[in-house]
């Protein structure tokens, strides 16, 4: 069986408020989980400032290095929302007032006392040749230009946009992941983990120590796209840890 | 008055578990807050995989582009902890078994039933010419090599390491930040924010819409190293928003 090569992705979080520590990013972790479920390999995430030259440099670099680049932040109505113009510039595109985006915003603000003023009209400015990303949460669309998926920064809005994107992305075989909970510190079973890692080609073995008052242990996570391999590796690890005299329990799939 | 140029920093989070979505990063936000308090400008943060060539590339790139590079993750006792060896290689240094690090670990494991085995001894391997970073939480030290500060990934351990580093870092003038809570959507007051941003050189004006059931508004955050400017800008913004017919309250410094 030839294994299909997975699509790769990167995330670019654009926002001074994350770099200042004022706002804690929630988008990297959320998108990471979604991509993992879809079998798309997230290879990198970056957080950068709201500065045109900086946005252009990172968008070009990351869009070349992976199949999908997801950005979050900077597409609202205010003066500091410069993501759309910067990404258009990165690809040598003009920004146009997009008719369908205007229509959606008009519908959204209809029968409210919120004025569809010049600032809000700016949210209908989209790079030419870009496709819209639906925004069920607050109407103002994101867009797809080349392999760059441009979304809002507010987590519930970003999430509503991403949900609608899923069937446009080519997923792959999801990695299977099993956790073996071991009742001992990671240093004691390090050689067992190394042995398992060496014994199964392409298997990833991660080691996550945890501490509670009066207790400690290690969650050993084995993962791979080969389900049988993951099952065998988890069982072998459990056996070796138990033989060494410690507790080891394989959790049900999906439990950590 | 000439304004001292601030030191710049970047963060490199090293860990497959963040990219898979299994673990949510907490280190970027925490370090960002600390740096902000110290008047050090965080210019970028990245999350990358536990792969030697990848670690080397990003460490070299980021250490050149800023004054301080802080890394988190990959310095434990297991086979997947390759940060130390990779960073040593990046700078053409050998890894040596560090006597003082061995001593600290011996003291730490003394009178416990935890064996100081080969895997745990690996935590005393440090690049030659590096200085140790104290680890009050779990003894195994981090290290400083060139301008790279290498810390553990587990948040309480990283935090205990960073606290001890603070007096080794050259801080600058802290930015003052004031939040003006406005009882209206950001699109309605976008032109006011742009006016304030244009009127005060070097002032940053950020706009953060919020939603609750039945309520919405915008937190407008004005910040700069010039305290008087921030105060004037917040008052002018408040006045203009109130004149436009909406509520606007300047929160006490430190409140968001």
The gross shape of chain A turns out to be elongated
Q: What is the N-to-C order of secondary-structure elements of chain A (H for helix, E for strand)? A: EHHEHEHEHHEEEEHEHEEHE
Strand percentage of chain A lies at 25-35%
CATH class term of the largest domain in chain A: Alpha Beta
Largest interface: A-B, 61 and 61 residues
Distance between the termini of chain A: 30 Å
Per the CATH scheme, the topology name of the largest domain in chain A is Molybdenum Cofactor Biosythetic Enzyme, Chain A
Q: SSE layout and pairings?
A:
The structure is a homodimer of 256-residue chains.
Chain A: E1 8-14, H1 16-19, H2 27-38, E2 41-48, H3 52-65, E3 68-72, H4 83-90, E4 95-97, H5 99-109, H6 118-121, E5 125-127, E6 131-133, E7 142-145, E8 148-151, H7 155-165, E9 176-182, H8 190-199, E10 204-212, E11 215-224, H9 227-243, E12 248-250
Parallel strand pairs in A: 1-2, 1-3, 3-8
Antiparallel strand pairs in A: 4-5, 6-7, 7-8, 9-11, 9-12, 10-11
Helix pairs in contact in A: 3-4, 8-9
């Amino acid at each position: 069986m030839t294994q299909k090569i997975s699509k790769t992705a990167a995330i670019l979080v654009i926002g001074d408020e994350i770099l200042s520590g004022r706002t804690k990013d929630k988008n990297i972790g959320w998108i990471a989980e979604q991509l993992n479920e879809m079998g798309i390999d997230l290879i990198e995430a970056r957080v950068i400032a709201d500065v045109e030259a900086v946005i252009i440099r990172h968008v070009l670099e990351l869009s070349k290095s992976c199949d999908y680049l997801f950005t979050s932040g900077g597409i609202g109505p205010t003066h500091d929302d410069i993501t759309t113009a910067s990404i258009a510039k990165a690809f040598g595109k003009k920004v146009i007032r997009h008719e369908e985006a205007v229509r959606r915003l008009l519908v959204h603000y209809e029968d409210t006392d919120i004025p569809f003023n010049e600032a809000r009209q700016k949210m209908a400015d989209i790079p030419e040749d870009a496709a819209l990303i639906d925004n069920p949460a607050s109407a103002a669309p994101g867009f797809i230009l080349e392999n760059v998926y441009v979304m809002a920064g507010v987590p519930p809005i970003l999430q509503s946009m991403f949900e609608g994107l899923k069937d446009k992305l080519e997923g792959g075989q999801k990695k299977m992941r099993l956790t073996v909970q071991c009742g001992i510190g990671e240093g004691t079973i390090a050689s067992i983990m190394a042995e398992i890692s060496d014994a199964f080609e392409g298997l990833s073995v991660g080691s996550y120590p945890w501490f509670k008052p009066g207790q400690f242990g290690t969650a050993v996570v084995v993962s791979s796209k080969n389900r049988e391999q993951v099952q065998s590796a988890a069982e072998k690890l459990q056996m070796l840890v138990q033989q060494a005299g410690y507790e080891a329990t394989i959790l049900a799939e999906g439990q950590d």
